[in-house]
Amino acid sequence: MTLDNVHKRLLDNLTTGVVLLNGQLQLLYMNVAAESLLEISVNKASRLHIGEILVNAEEDLREIENAMNSNSSFTKRKAELEIAHGKALFVDYSISPFEEDGQVQALLELSSLEHTQRITREETLHSAHATTRELVRGLAHEIKNPLGGIRGAAQLLAKEVDDEELTDFTNVIIEEADRLHNLVDRLVGSRKPLDIQATNIHEVLERARSLVEAEVSGLGIKLEDDYDPSIPPIQGDREQLIQAMLNILRNAMQSLTSPDVEHALGEIMLRTRIVRNIMIDKRFYRLAVNVEVIDNGPGIPENLIGSIFYPMISGRPDGSGLGLPISNGIINQHQGMIECDSKPGRTRFSVVLPISQQSQPH
After folding, report:
1. pLDDT tens per residue, range 317-349
2. What's the CA gap between 360 and 362, in Å, rounded?
3. Cα(155)–Cα(319) distance, rounded to whole angstroms?
4. How many CB atoms neighbour CB 176 within 10 A?
5. Residues near 218 by Cβ (< 8 Å), separated by ≥ 6?
6. pLDDT tens digits along 216-230
7. What tens digit of pLDDT does each residue of 118-151 get?
8. Which phi and psi angles does 251 have, rounded to 5°?
9. Nearest 5°: phi and psi at 175?
10. Which residues 6+ apart lie within 8 Å of 25 measured at CB?
11. How many angstroms separate the CA atoms of 165 and 144, rounded?
12. SS (H, E, C) the chain
């Protein structure tokens, strides 16, 4: 492998966007992170003026030109830039001029604030979930012991009484003790090892979708899909992933049967896309799949959006508050993550799963 190839691989494994400009501010090279951030390939962007990629950025272009002319580095924090199709970027960027074979060139580094904020948010959620999980497991142990005693005593009492009415009461005690036991088991989650194998994410989604379609029949809810057929198999437990996606789809379905819905037709969109160079739980992955479940329901109340992945939190009076925490636990077991953003008329759950389990600390 040549040194140039080593350098290219190193740059392509960075999560920071790196752009090489010539003295006329034309693009000579950019790494994979820059392609993803600027939403343009290096082939299409080659020799384009940076002002054709970052539009309406006159002040920033002046700063870059001044840095080039004075041969001095320049850094700007919390810059708002706009790319060609109108999407806003929030980044920190720095420009570092240098000479190469007598020609002035510059390295433009772009660090996405959204990416940084997501890592911070993910770390906070991960820590909170770990604390909650240990708390729930401790409570489960304390609850199950007296439940077993109550159930056993009710069974013994049932054998001692001949009165059918009293037997009905003991049966109620036994049934309710079993129900609470099952609820605690669901709170703790499955401890069964994952059956990891090559899994087609679209087969997982279609299985979950077929189950939900039977439930939404006659409810005025339409399910649509927008799949990227080029996504390769992931390493995962097919049945567990079906359960995770089914819980998320059911959550969307239930929101669309809410009395707060202000339109006649409910829509749930399933979308898959490839994402590149992504950090998940402090680990760097070159490729991952992003599965989005988007509905046009009333949205998640602002006071709940930060806690929907915690057990027993539900926006519905009849909700158990277990579906999303169970999904979150399954996705975490697959080294993935779930994010949610919501406003009235649009709620989006985004599930990111590594395509390859090969990862490295970053």
Report:
1. 555 566 788 888 889 889 898 888 888 888 999
2. 6
3. 31
4. 14
5. none
6. 877 888 899 999 999
7. 666 666 666 666 666 666 667 777 777 888 888 8
8. -60, -45
9. -65, -40
10. 49, 50, 51, 61, 64, 65, 68, 106
11. 27
12. CCHHHHHHHHHHCCCCEEEEEECCCEEEEECHHHHHHHCCCHHHHCCCEHHHHEECCHHHHHHHHHHHHHCCCEEEEEEEEEECCCCEEEEEEEEEEEEECCEEEEEEEEEEHHHHHHHHHHHHHHHHHHHHHHHHHHHHHHHHHHHHHHHHHHHHHHHHCCCHHHHHHHHHHHHHHHHHHHHHHHHHCCCCCCCCEEECHHHHHHHHHHHHHHHHCCCCEEEEEECCCCCCCEEECHHHHHHHHHHHHHHHHHHHCCCCCCCCCEEEEEEEEEEEEEEECCEEEEEEEEEEEEECCCCCCCCCCCCCCCCCCCCCCCCCCCHHHHHHHHHHHCCCEEEEEEECCEEEEEEEEECCCCCEEC
Within 10 A of 282 (CB to CB), how many other CB atoms are there?
Answer: 12
pLDDT recorded at residue 230: 92
The pLDDT, as a whole number, for residue 321 is 60
Token couple for 62? 């002046």
Which of 272, 293, 269 has the alpha carbon at shortest distance from 221? 269
- Tell which wins on pLDDT, 183 or 34: 34
Residues 84/52, Cβ–Cβ less than 8 Å: yes
- Would the pLDDT of 362 be above 70? no
In order of start, what are the domains of the chain with their CATH numbers?
3-112 (3.30.450.20), 117-188 (1.10.287), 197-361 (3.30.565.10)
Q: How far apart are CA 40 and CA 32, in angstroms?
A: 10
Alpha-carbon gap, residue 148 to 155, rounded angstroms: 11
Tell me what pLDDT residue 115 has: 63
The proportion of the chain whose per-residue pLDDT surpasses 70, expressed as a percent, equals 82
Question: Which residue has better confidence, 217 or 69?
Answer: 69
Cβ neighbours around 285 below 10 Å, total:
23
Q: Averaged over 268-273, what is the pLDDT?
A: 95
Paired tokens of 109? 């580094």
Question: Maximum distance among all alpha carbons in the chain?
Answer: 103
